[in-house]
Amino acid sequence: MSDAVNEIRQEARAWLAANWDTDAGRARSGGSMGDWMRLVFEAGWAVPSWPTDYWGRGLGKAETSAVIGEFRKVGAPGAGQDRTNITANSIMQFGSETLKRKMIPEFLTGASMCLLYSEPGAGSDLAAVRTRADRKGDVYVVSGQKLWTSGAHRAQYGLLLARTDWDVPKHEGLSFFIIPMKQEGIEVRPINQITGDSHFNEVFLDNAQVLAENRVGEEGQGWKVMQTALAVERAIMGEGAGERRQGSSKDNVVSLIDIAREAGKLDDPVLRQDIAQAIAWRQLNALNMMRAKQEMAQGSSSPIMSLGKLAMSRILHGDARVMTKLLGAASMLDGEANERAADVNYRAANAYMTSIGGGTDQIQRNIIGERVLGLPREVEADRNIPFRQSRAVTG
Amino acid sequence: MTMIDADERAAIRDGFARLLAERHREADVRRIMATDSGHDPALWQAISDMGLTALLVNPDHGGIGAGPVELEAVMEEAGAALLAGPFLSSAVLAAGLLGQSNDADAKARLLPGIASGEAIAAVALTGEAGSWTPVGVNVTARREGDGWQLDGTAAFVLSANVATVLLVVARTADGIGCFEIAPDAIGIDVQPLESWDRTLRFSRILFSGAKAVQIGGIDEAAVERALDLGRVALAGEQAGAARQIFEISVDYLKTRVQFGRQIGGFQALKHIAADLLIEVESATSAARAAAEALASDAPDKDRLVNLAAFACADAFSEVAATAIQMHGGIAFTWEHPAHLYLRRARADAQLFGQSDMYRERFLAAMEKAA
Q1: pLDDT at A250 (0 to 100)
Q2: Which of B261, B274, B278 sits opposite A369 (nearest CB)?
Q3: Which residues lie across from B175 on neighbouring strands?
Q4: CA distance B186 to B188
Q5: In chain A, which stretches have pLDDT less than 50?
Q6: What is the pLDDT of residue B189?
Q7: Residue A161 and residue A222 in contact, taking contact as beta carbons nearer than 8 Å
Q8: Of A353-357, A369-373, B137-141, B194-198, which gets the smallest average pLDDT?
Q9: Spatial separation of the C-alpha atoms in residues A152 and A191, rounded to whole Å
Q10: Backbone phi, psi, residue B153, to 5°
Q11: What distance in Å separates the CA atoms of residue B43 and residue A369, rounded to the nearest whole number?
């Protein structure tokens, strides 16, 4: 390990020791989580790899990883948002200087946001969005319907993909905005999911307004900006962010073996094969992610990161399948009648969150095939015609 | 074990890759396959000159003293090139087994030759059951005067047809032991068998009152440790070979045109390629993690070695099998290399035991750790 890495590790460790109360899970100085985030931000830990005049410390990949590692070790949030904060990264890469100064500090210190991407007519084909943003002086007026927006009812801002030009091909007429959610003209309605949860919403925009200076990138650059945002999101999902955190053991490995034992099936040689394979998929993905991080820390880019979400979807569906086999007929029950069944059934339904959300497995395979392996792109009937003439509009 | 830094490790690997690119191209693989022995002495000499046969041997006996991590890296290259000949047998299994021994005489007698490549050793590890477990050993050793006498059958003995010395794992009254015997000794019959993968040669060996010398200090646990090295080597080979045939397939998807398009533009093939990339990367990660765990004698090394054993075997099997389907008719021809990878994949999936056995061992290791 290099001296620079060691040095920064020591510094982060010392800073955490002075400022973070591990047992209490908050700042030693007390205050809210927002106060803690501001402390982290001011110390430059929020985005260690960014330049010093942009709230960072100008650190390399290995040093940044070391900082993140120290924070993770003591369970302190807020560091390493240069890898995880979707909004801040998008603005940093594409936003105007004014927008950076205005909004990045807010997002790095905990401002909440939701994603206004998908629409009823634009799921896998996200570039077909029909929500319109029309320029009127210093503002854009926005109308349309968005879907699958988590946290929309409490978010302060929305990351909005909207059409600003209908006379160019679909990818070229999009723009990307940071729109305030608390305003007249925005209505949020919860969607009831197959799990019984309601994490997602429909968002109706009816002459809502967003300042022109809140546009990220130029008009027509929206697709490119969103790709950056999606890449950050997928990287997070590959590490299992979509998994159930409540209820039974967080550690799936223990739970598969435990469930088998409980069900009296841990000696069944056929089921043991299934259990081993399910656990193996999870461990192999973890080993892949570890190797990807090592490769990235050494400065080379890693294609492995893009595999994580697809792999995770196989893991989650696979776990649910094996757990269902272990439970047998009891898996028909639910709720208090059988809490184990309730958990397994929840997992079986919730696995689709990973295999559909953020790009279906099929879209992921296209992306891996095209961007990682360099295979030819999909044929798109409306790629090169004015969007106005596309069947997305003409029906 | 000697400390070998990352630069030296990369140099060893790169040197080997260059040698293989020059001396072990597809045409060479086919040439060696067609020989009676499946062994190219000139190539063996070049591999030995580069020090690779000495990789696992202690410096006291003329070796380099490298460990599982270097071995795994080298085996990825060997797998990619479908290396033919006795490397796995002599430089890995035999060197690994002798490394477990505390028999100074035997080590001084055998290891320098193995390290220099002048000797080629084969290891008899299993009977016709082909389980590579102590239960599967079907040779017994009895004391006879000062020495020992071997009876029974060893099967699937890798590279015994070209070996200058045989190491035989056998049952004694006190459990598993290891014995040295010349392949042309009286009472021993080495029967080379046809193999489906002609780059790997197996023999059946019949022992009938054959006189052998015991190699001290090798018991069941020592055999297991040597086999761990073999498993990591094989996992590396499988990972490297899977990656190579995968890359050959992806290249073909970009060059083959049907319906006026490169066929890699069709989702039916593109999606298979994406799924296989997960297998290829997982195999690489598993093989390397197992090598590192074994090198550091990590507490979870059993889990990781067993995981690599089945994950790499399954990945290579799937990638090699699917590669032929992705290519279509061209890969159904003898002249196309895809079937060479399928042959190796199918053989490797049996060597040292099948995936089901390793999945079971993996789960048992998880239970034990819990």
Answers
A1: 41
A2: B274
A3: B172
A4: 6
A5: 241-251, 253
A6: 98
A7: yes
A8: A353-357
A9: 11
A10: -130, 135
A11: 38
B67: distance to nearest CA of chain A, Å?
20
> How are beta strands A157-163 and A113-116 bridged, if at all?
parallel
Q: Are B181 and B166 in contact (CB under 8 A)?
A: yes
- Long-range Cβ pairs for the range A289-297 (8 Å, 24+): A289/A238, A289/A239, A290/B285, A290/B289, A291/B281, A291/B284, A291/B285, A291/B288, A293/A65, A296/A61, A297/A61, A297/A62, A297/A65
What residues in B contact A283, CB-CB < 8 Å? 307
Question: What is the DSSP annotation of A95-126?
Answer: S-HHHHHHHHHHHHTT--EEEE--BTTBSSSG
3 state SS of A137: coil
- The tokens for A337 are 């009648």
Tokens of residue A238, six digits? 């590959």
pLDDT at residue B115 above 80?
Answer: yes
What angle do the packed helices B68-80 and B220-255 form, to 10 degrees? Answer: 40
Please report which confidence band the pLDDT of residue B5 belongs to, taking 50, 70 and 90 as the band edges.
confident
Residue A251 has a pLDDT of 41
Q: Any alpha helices (H) in A179-239, and if so which ranges?
A: 222-237
User: How confident is the model at residue B197, as a pLDDT?
Assistant: 97
Mean pLDDT of all residues in B302-312 = 98
Q: Which residues of A6-40 are buried (b: 16+ CB within 10 A; e: fewer)?
A: eebbebbbebbeebbeeeeebbeeeeeeeebbbbb
Instruction: Check B270 against A284: CB less than 8 A apart.
Output: no
- Indicate the pairing of strand A132-136 with strand B139-144: unpaired
Contact present, B176 and B139 (Cβ < 8 Å): no
At position A95, the amino acid (one-letter code) is G
Distance CA A277, CA A283 (A): 10
Per the prediction, chain B carries an average pLDDT of 96
Q: What is the ipTM of this complex?
A: 0.94
pLDDT at A245: 40
Chain B positions touching A310 (Cβ under 8 A) are: 274-275, 278
